[in-house]
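Standup notes
- DV: blocked on the single-chain target, sequence here:
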Amino acid sequence: MTDSPVALITGGGSGIGAAVARQLLKAGHRVTVTGRGAERLRGFAAELGDPEGLLTVVGDAAEYADVQAAVEATLEKFGRLDAVVANAGFATHDTVAEGDPAGWPAMVLTNVLGPALLIRASIDALKETRGRIVLVGSVAGHVNGPGNIYGATKWAVTGLAENTRRQVTDFGVGVTLISPGRVETPFWDTYGSLPPGHLLTADQLADSIVWAIGQPSGVDVNTVVIRPIGQAN
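- DV (later): unblocked, structure below
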């Protein structure tokens, strides 16, 4: 167990992040999960039976001190770091011409600054293991939508993934951008309802994230776009 791979997942107490954590733990990884809600993290750990290989850390993905603390806690408990998954993010579900700007700064900081902070905080440890960075983007970061502010943050993540790859590949570190279409997760809670049509499940998306993390040494899968059947755009 002491030599098993270690992953750190931001925003991992529910939805996609929680599904990834479950699958990695089942596969024998040790996992750190971060989130802003202590109660949610405690509930997630309890649901899994408080496994020895799970560490939960309360913190804000957009605060560098919190991200650094999560990386340091992971290294202290597990002794290594093999993969990070920048999953924390949310949408205000409004538009540039008609939305409420009050919610935009937090969304931009979480969605765009958060992944960059995670990369910066973890890169030295990932150099040691020749590990992997996974950024959870969105189809909205590849396809324009009318007035879509959230989509603009995910276009930034698309750019961040490739810009990061071009630097860290020289360090032996891989970078994968996973861009999902519609997924049935708490992401839609602030929207008021699930969108129409077929949706991916969090577990289905987690399959691809875990697959990317598990690629053979020396293989770097860079961009994976995943839509449910029936999503045209």
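- Follow-up: The domain at 6-226 is CATH 3.40.50.720 (Rossmann fold).
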